[in-house]
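Entry for zinc ion complex. Fields follow.
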Amino acid sequence: MEADEARQRLEAERERLVAVKSDFDVEHLTDESEDESLSELSSVDQHQADVGTETFEREKDLSILEQVEAELADVEHALQRLDDGTYGTCEFDNKPIPEERLEALPAARFCVEHQAEAEREAARVRPE
Ligand SMILES: [Zn+2]
């Protein structure tokens, strides 16, 4: 893949992720102001139940947000590597990442082999 094409795809992806994130922020802010007015009005029991649901919803939201932020970080990292001239190489062994893999995943940081290794590493640090 040409550097120009890679940059275009990465910039489009960055735009998409930023839009998802800002939609998310707007929704989140709206939720928060609703929660406040709600908790002032509700009885204690009702409030407890709401808090349980809200906590669950918020955790779910946070994991989606984390996912989006992680993808965004990868895309920005890939754009940085385009600037550095290191784009398209595995960060582990500096070997070129196969073309098909970059086509499928323009923000790829590792070849398939080392991607699996990096994910095992990450899972060890932060078990799901
Ligand atoms: Zn590698």
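NOTE: The chain has a mean pLDDT of 85.
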